[in-house]
Amino acid sequence: IRLSGKYTGEPREYLAGNGKGKYSVADIGTWPWVKGWSFSGLQEEDMKPFPHLMKWIDRIAERPAVKRGTGDKYSQ
Predict the structure, then answer these.
(1) What is the pTM of this model?
(2) Which Gene3D superfamilies does this entry report, sorted A to Z (predicted)?
(3) Using one digit for the tens of pLDDT, what is the confidence trace for 17-47?
């Protein structure tokens, strides 16, 4: 709901900060838990009501530092 802007009228890009938000420790700490939604038994159909959340997951994943930190070097 926070990302959708339901109560502010403006969709947000990040969890904390004014306006569209600012990438912060809130995103850094939350993203690893939320990105694995499929491992919890949820299906894509279950996530359709949350398009802003899905965009947020993708947005964080595309950040260069996140890519470095979750790349193949760390999967070994």
Answers:
(1) 0.87
(2) 1.20.1050.10
(3) 998 999 999 999 999 999 999 999 999 999 9
